[in-house]
Amino acid sequence: MLRLPTALLLVALFSGCASITNDAFVPIAFSMSDGSNADCTMTNKRGQWTVDVPDTAMIRRSDDALKYNCDTENGAKAAGAIDSKIGAKIVASAVFIDFGITDAITDKHREYPASFVIPVKAKSTNQTTAKQPKQVPAEVESVAEAMMCSESIAFEKADSAGTHWKLGCGDDESLKVLCKDGTCYVR
User: pTM for the whole thing?
Assistant: First the structure.
């Protein structure tokens, strides 16, 4: 009498393995944080995929991170990794079926997020060019004429003290000029 229920229980336990084990591939929706389009290469130990972002790609589950390397349409680059996590179904597999051996060997117990926004750093702009005067101020030209240093006038730098200029005076001599608030001083 006990043999029949025990046999049915064993058949039920061992025939349910396929329903607990996950599919090998998982869909991930990718997008870029700046909204741009990008060509990305995704890799883990189970494979490599080329993805035109934004898009959804079928990625093979793995216990290692999914590494991405992207080139955006505006020339920015993005690289990083998406960690995988242990899925909930591994617990059921471990308790009822095969102690999680099948899922652990195939990495089907791992989960990647359903969607991922790839961060893109904004391109830095060179702010020093905005501080540099485009033309020689009249005050600097006046100093150059007064000192007879009209061979060359070169901008050196701008800081909290003012703008710094170099005047070429001939015979490889030069003068330094500091201008602040419309007044220039020979240093």
Answer: 0.50
Give me the DSSP letters along 49-93: EEEEESEEEEEE--SS-EEEEEEETTS-EEEEEE--EE-THHHHI
Rounded-to-integer distance, Cα 158 and Cα 37, Å = 39
Buried/exposed code over 51-67 (b: 16+ C-beta within 10 A; e: otherwise): bebeeebebbbbeeebe
Vertex 174 angle, CA 169 and 178, to 5°: 115
Q: Are 89 and 109 in contact (CB under 8 A)?
A: yes
Pairing of strands 25-32, 115-118: parallel
pLDDT 10s digits, 18-59: 445 678 899 999 999 988 999 999 999 989 999 999 999 999
Q: Distance between alpha carbon 70 and the CA centroid of its chain, in Å?
A: 8
| pLDDT digit string, tens, across residues 168-179 | 887 778 888 888
Rg (CA), the chain: 34
